């Protein structure tokens, strides 16, 4: 099934299993979702459990907090991740804090699903990933889908978790097809990375849209790389990544985010400190440049690290043992 | 000392007019004492007291069932005490002690007790309105006849959450009452400097819901209005907006001497002190004598003194407390897709 259908299946399976699960968002009911990620749910579950909202992210995300405190398990859909900016208080400062602020007596089992990323020609206010808005808040889990299976399994795990979870879904992957194991066997546990390819020479950590890029680049380059889909960004699977890097001695993180302040800093820093003596080359990050996501297809195609670029960087890194310069420095476009 | 009443007993006691007056006195004495504790260095950080707004606090508690839900602001000591939380739990939290309602990790702005319907009080202006709407949504989805009440200040009427929450609640006919405690000042700024329409219940027209403004200094007036609005929400009539006109006798927070107020304004409002009005009403109606009410006031002050003394002896939390209750445990199942 397509990734967008996997999202529908996850929501439907959880709503069938538990009548406290509900969905709110802009155009999620009658229209079936702007990206068709809730098609058919209104018909099956009715207007109380599948609600079209006003264009009021603060209101409906906040309503999810209140409903979750009182025993529902709401899922809210944020059409574009950028729109969470006007409701961030409800996620970071309210939902993530209420368990702590009630001495553990209140749980806030809510899910914030947001479409993210470049590749659709949506322009610079609708194409960011912005995961770092939500990664420095204890109490909040953050997971990122990379294919139909993880879109299904992470959403189901998120709905079942008793605390707030942000689920990021790369928008460009919604039409991508893949086999999906459904049912409880298809749940992807929060906090566990997925080792998608075994390898001995380098550990490549990717997330969301860069997972497919990394797998393709490794195949193109013909390098013996271990490819890990981090899947959960908070709390990320330190054990799996460290164990892999101890064995390979090298670490590359592939990110769809501006170079400065990206999530890969956390991975590189933590792993370097933990396994320093096992490293045979400096860990490094392959990222987007420090620019807004440009609109022109010719430019947008270079924003996300391409498979050719990642393959070239990996090959150079493995051959020289040193960190290659990013393309914008090689081409003299930025410092 | 007599045995400590439970939060439910404290709530039920408000049905008695003298006990309701006693609770208003308790809130006033409590808030006055908090101000003093700062001077002694026994309370740190910040706090926002509510002297002058006791009629709203007690009127609200009396209008609600125990299973109704309240969201309120960081000026929440009075509502917490009125709903039934013990002075020990509230003061313990304000003093950062283990006896606080959440063991001292929250402080003055973060009081909560779901047993009396109080969600954690909000330190973000306006944030309680969408959350109250969400509680009401849960009641609506389950077909329960419970009500949520969001209490915000006049300053909150200018933040987006206020507009978004009321609009959405109106569209969905949620069982929620939006109460604006208009004490004339948003932090340090007078309402006319920040708000073009100062008759705040007129905002209701924008959402097609009932709006009403009432005197917030008289317990009977504010209590009757709140009961009516809560009953309407409970009956399925949808949300409403109630402006309660009060006055903040103290400054915004502990550092604020409120020198920006026009000369004489405080004195005018002091003549309508809710405690003074209530005391006179009880005596006029023959419900209690002046001597009896004097005794109530003395007894309340002595009780607060005892609570302060007892709380000062309670230990501060150890480091384990800061690592507790960050989030519920993740599923430990080893199954699923790798």
From TrEMBL, chain B:
Q: Which cofactor does it need?
A: thiamine diphosphate
**Pfam families, alphabetized:** E1_dh
Q: Where is the signal peptide?
A: none
Give UniProt keywords alphabetically. Oxidoreductase, Pyruvate, Thiamine pyrophosphate
**Chain ranges of the Dehydrogenase E1 component domain:** 22-318
Transmembrane residue ranges = none
**Gene3D superfamilies, sorted:** 3.40.50.970
PANTHER family, from UniProt? 3-METHYL-2-OXOBUTANOATE DEHYDROGENASE SUBUNIT ALPHA, PYRUVATE DEHYDROGENASE E1 COMPONENT, ALPHA SUBUNIT BACTERIAL AND ORGANELLAR
> Which protein is depicted?
Pyruvate dehydrogenase (Acetyl-transferring) E1 component subunit alpha
